[in-house]
Amino acid sequence: MPQPNAVKCLVVDDEPRLRRVLVRLLEGEGFTCAEAGSGTEALEMLHQEQVPLVISDLRMPQMDGVGLLREIIAKWPDTAVIVVTAVAEVESAVACLQLGALDYVAKPFHLDEVRARVMQALDKRRLKMELEDYRHNLEQRVQEQARRIEELSLERLQALVHFLEEKDPYTRGHSVRVANYSTRIAREMGLPRPVVEVITLGAELHDIGKIGVSEQVLHKEGKLSEPEYRHIMEHPVIGARILAPLMRDVPAALAIVRSHHERLDGRGFPDGLAGDQIPLEVRVVTIADSFDAMTSVRPYRPALSVQKALQELEEGKDAQFHAPAVEAFLAAFPDASALPVSTPEIQPLHLPALTPDTTHGSPASD
Ligand SMILES: [Fe+2]
User: Fold this and answer.
1) Measured in angstroms, how far is the CA atom of residue 245 from the centroid of ligand 1?
2) Mean pLDDT along residues 248-275
3) Which one of 8, 161, 198, 311 is separated from 356 by 20 to 30 angstroms, measured CA to CA?
4) Sign of torsion, CA 290 296 298 301?
5) Count: domains in the chain
6) CA 290–ligand 1 middle distance (angstroms)
7) pTM tops 0.85
8) What is the Å distance from ligand 1's center to 235 Cα?
């Protein structure tokens, strides 16, 4: 008698007598069996319910065993198929094995032989599925480890940025404050969470290229000469070059690093991008970066008042800044007396989960 959780099996043969022989044998082994008289009928049944094992005759009217086998391999690759052939059809049986059948039995068959072939086929199926499972898990684990290694490298770079900023009283805490402002703007704009995470990451690392700028120029008191200014302005390109191998999966964060000194009117650095060419993520960070720079003391000028900095953002709408992001900044910080924010605690960096939002960046216009 079939067991309640018995393995289900579909027996396909146009001869009812042969079907019954196989069904009796399999039920005797504890299988639950369904029967189909043709390939077409078998397919209909498989569409209703997938089974782990199909035993099918090769010669049948309508769809024959080979046609059925092709369909099963394409639609239900986890189903084990055993074909039943006449002795004279051994070549067809071999062709079926090449197509993906797990075994064949030749008519007239011995019941013991059928029993053994069925057990072997189910074993092969189980091993195949376990292997696929293992391969899938392994790929996922390798991918997770690779991302973790990238994260660790990013954390080291983050530490270096903070170290550099700490050494300089003029830039102390700049990156974390910019990340904080940017995150608040992005949330205020209602951007999806993966996009907000990319913005936080890019903002935190946006000035990493300053590692490659001469400290003498970086910390120079007083006004910069034209060549010195150009040297400092290489930092977005240097930063993008440093991070490119670690941020292959998050191009929008890399764009923030490379393009945070671009302007909507095309008069920015380093590529002179204009309007929609500047990704939305970048436009958000540009506002945060500019506001923090304006409200911080620089070697060559005192800090601007919050009122003056807000006015600059207003006046820079459309020419320099993305107007909706400026609005979002004002909405996120309605109380000007609470500005500028104090420097938040440094949080460990993490790469956002891979989603279409993070892998392709957001559309430039919103
Ligand atoms: Fe910068």
Assistant:
1) 20
2) 95
3) 161
4) positive
5) 2
6) 9
7) no
8) 7
